[in-house]
Amino acid sequence: MSNDAEMTDAQGGAEANGAEEFVHEKQRLKILPGSSDTAASFAFEKEDHTLGNALRYIIMKNPDVEFCGYSIPHPSEAVMNVRIQTWDGVSVWDVLRKALDDLCDLCDVVEEKFTKARDEFNAEHPDRMKKKGMTKNKLATTRTIQQHRRYHEQGELAHMKFWKLI
Questions:
Q1: Would residue 45 count as lying in a domain?
Q2: Where are its TM segments located (predicted)?
């Protein structure tokens, strides 16, 4: 005799343990043809110079990297290409993974230092703060930090999805 119970499907819109519904996105990172373990080109969809230059800078700090460059093939297309070449025996996959992790860590440090400096300034200059609520600058800063956190969380999800495919 089995103790198995019949399970029914959850109703539409139901969430498990209060978790948000996971939205599946199109894969935004593609490996371009002609790649090898030590030289590869990647196409990042919906990215521009903001990520391209920062990622190139972080990758070039790695002593195992021989070359790294990025380009935006055409201004009307939301695609950024990154080319990485490493010295013999060093995987471009490991270099890209490390660079993305380092860039996320750098963004976290910048956010923490900015928030600390802003809070110290506001504590030293209470006359600049309105008595009822936040000023426009603090409100804009708070929104920017919230957007960064959401983008960072989305980036981590995309990052995890990408490495599962390899």
A1: yes
A2: none
48, two tokens: 């521009």
95 close to 62: Cβ distance less than 8 angstroms: yes
Token digits for 160? 């995890």
What is the span of the domain harbouring residue 120? 25-165
Q: How many CB atoms lie within 10 A of CB 42?
A: 19
Placement of tokens 């019949």 in the chain = 6
**H or E segment to which residue 28 belongs:** none
Q: Is residue 156 part of a domain?
A: yes
Q: Provide the sign of the torsion angle of the four alpha carbons 10, 11, 13, 16, taken in this order.
A: negative
Q: Count CB-CB contacts under 10 A for residue 49.
A: 12
**What is the per-residue pLDDT for 166?**
37
Identify each DSSP E strand in the chain by its residue range: 29-31, 39-45, 65-71, 79-86
Number of structural domains in the chain? 1
For residue 154, is it within any domain?
yes
Count Cα atoms within 13 angstroms, Cβ side, for 40.
Answer: 17
- Mean pLDDT, each 10-residue run in order, the chain (166 residues): 56 51 76 94 94 96 96 93 94 95 94 93 80 56 65 58 47
Residue 5 lies in a domain: no
Q: Any idea what the CATH number is for the domain that residue 139 is in? A: 3.30.1360.10
